[in-house]
Structure formats: structure tokens, C-alpha cells
Design brief:
By secondary structure, the chain is of the alpha+beta class. It has eight helices and 14 strands. Bound molecules: zinc ion (ZN) (2 copies).
Length: about 300
């Protein structure tokens, strides 16, 4: 009998999982991986009954697109994807309540083999928690070119974006800045000024003025500060910052990098009855939903 390649949707993916403190590589069917990723990446249990199946569907398409676009990312270590945020989260479905397992499994079946493409290729399906009201161009956040589907959009969802505040003593902030060569200020920190913003209100360029003076992208500054203080401190680059004596006060809105799908916005649109494909095409301009016929 001639050997036939398995259909891409039946492909086996090699995932590095951590169990009981031990890492091991497991081989999973693509759709089984999708189910565990949807459950790990989305708190389905917190989403209202009228929105949850739509949310699970768009999250399944996001997870599948990410997996296909990044297969072999860890080839050097003989697996495809890790199960942490470096790639995307995956947890064994059995660790979730049966009701949520059923929702994720149904979403995988109903969207079986569907991925997001731009000009026939799988897209980099980036998403984040909360855009604060407007998403941003990928190139503004990280530098480099912006794929046409990762341009910023004004979020149609209203009343779902959250503000935050983070106060930090000057000395702790100075120490954190000095841990990275790009943000080093030396023995003194005078002020931090946002000198350029994008249309979404994100800090594009920030001047850090001290014994040394540094100019960095907002996202670089956020990465340095969250490395020291945690992800729930400077939650986004949609912030203002001011000095108040020996304290620095950050206040902002949104959570995450702000590129691609805004999860709180997408969940809100699902609750308003929007279909999962329309929601994805809203945040990723110009993309198509296509059935996998081959692994790129
Ligand atoms: Zn990884
Ligand atoms: Zn949003």
C-alpha cells in the first residue's frame, strides 16, 4: 500500500509539558493540543453563557493558527512548542471541569482545521488581555515593519477596559532601571517623560533622565519594569508617569502589549452576538479564515 501523509489537521505536535515538576515531551493530535490550549489561555468559567461558545471558537482558531505558524519553534530540542507563555499556554484538558472541557472540545470540532491567513499564509495571531480602548501597530510596539493585519484599530467594545495605577519609590525604580543596559540611569534619577505617543495613546518613546539619559521605546521600559516588579504593575504602555517627591506614579489603562486581538473587547463583542469569524476579522484587518490543506 502506498504511504500517504496524514492530513495536516491530523498531524501530531510535540509539546513540552511540565508535570509534577518534571518536563517531558508528549506527542498530541493537533486538535487535542488546541483543546488544552483554549482551556489554558481563556478563563472560560468566568464568561457568560451567551458568549462562551463564541469565545471558545475564536480562541480555538487563534491557538491553531499560532501552532501552525510556529511548528518546530523548539526543533533544536526535539519538540515543536513549549506549554508556557513563550509559545502559548497548554494544560491537559483533564485538569479542567468537565463542562469547560466539553465547551473547548466542541469549539475545536466546529472550527476543525480553520486558521487565519493573510495572502495565503498563516498570520502571527497575536493577542493580549485589554487594549485600553485602542490597539496599536506591531511596528510601533516592537519596532520593525507592521504586517497589514496587525495595524491598530479603535475597539468597538465599550465599558470593558480597565484603568490601573502603580506607585513606586524613586530608589526602587532607579535600581530596576539600572538592571538593564538600555535603561541605565546611574546614581541619580530625575524624571521620566513620554515624548511621543501613537494614535492609541501608547508611549512610543520615553526619555529617562538621570546621571545618564536614555531614550527607549515604551514597551522596552515596560519589559524592564515588569521584570523587576511583576506583570501586574506597569500593565501596558498606555500610561502617564509623574514624579511626586520621592515617588513615581504611573497611571494607565489596558493590560498587555496592545497588538492584535483584545481579549476583553472580543469577549464583549461575543456577548453582543457577533460571530467568532467577524470578531477575528475586526481585530485583524484583511485576514481570511481558511481550512488547512497543507502544513506550510
Ligand atoms: Zn516556547
Ligand atoms: Zn480592547
Amino acid at each position: 500500500m502506498p504511504r500517504v501523509d496524514p492530513k495536516p489537521v491530523d498531524r501530531v505536535v510535540r509539546i513540552l509539558v511540565t508535570q509534577g515538576g518534571h518536563e517531558r515531551i508528549v506527542a498530541l493530535g493537533l486538535e487535542d493540543y488546541i483543546v488544552g490550549s483554549v482551556l489554558a489561555e481563556t478563563a472560560l468559567g468566568t464568561i457568560s453563557a451567551d458568549a462562551v461558545s463564541t469565545v471558545a471558537r475564536f480562541q480555538a482558531v487563534l491557538a491553531r493558527t499560532y501552532a501552525i505558524a510556529n511548528l518546530g519553534r523548539h526543533d533544536g530540542k526535539h519538540f515543536d512548542l513549549c506549554s508556557e507563555t513563550h509559545c502559548q499556554l497548554y494544560r491537559s484538558p483533564e485538569t479542567f471541569p468537565p463542562r469547560l472541557q466539553r465547551i473547548a472540545r466542541t469549539a475545536s470540532v466546529e472550527t476543525r482545521g480553520v486558521i487565519l491567513t493573510y495572502e495565503g499564509r498563516p498570520i502571527q495571531a497575536l493577542y493580549h488581555s485589554d487594549c485600553g480602548g485602542h490597539t496599536s501597530d506591531a511596528g510601533i510596539v516592537w519596532g520593525g515593519p507592521t504586517p497589514p493585519y496587525l495595524l491598530g484599530v479603535s475597539d468597538a467594545a465599550e465599558g470593558v477596559h480597565y484603568g490601573w495605577e502603580f506607585d513606586v519609590p524613586l530608589d526602587r525604580l532607579r535600581h530596576a532601571l539600572n538592571r538593564n543596559a538600555r535603561t541605565r540611569v546611574g546614581a541619580r534619577l530625575n524624571r521620566i517623560d513620554v515624548i511621543q505617543r501613537d494614535v492609541a495613546g501608547r508611549a512610543m518613546r520615553v526619555v529617562i533622565d538621570g546621571e545618564l539619559v536614555a531614550t527607549v521605546r515604551g514597551e522596552e521600559l515596560r519589559a524592564v519594569l515588569t521584570a523587576s516588579f511583576g506583570a501586574r504593575t506597569v500593565r501596558s504602555t498606555r500610561f502617564d508617569v509623574r514624579r511626586d517627591g520621592e515617588q513615581f506614579k504611573f497611571s494607565g489603562s489596558g493590560f498587555g502589549h496592545g497588538v492584535g486581538v483584545c481579549q476583553v473587547g472580543a469577549i464583549s463583542l461575543a456577548g453582543r452576538g457577533e460571530a467568532f469569524d467577524k470578531i477575528l476579522q475586526y481585530y485583524y484587518s484583511g485576514v481570511s479564515l481558511e481550512h488547512l490543506t497543507r502544513v506550510p
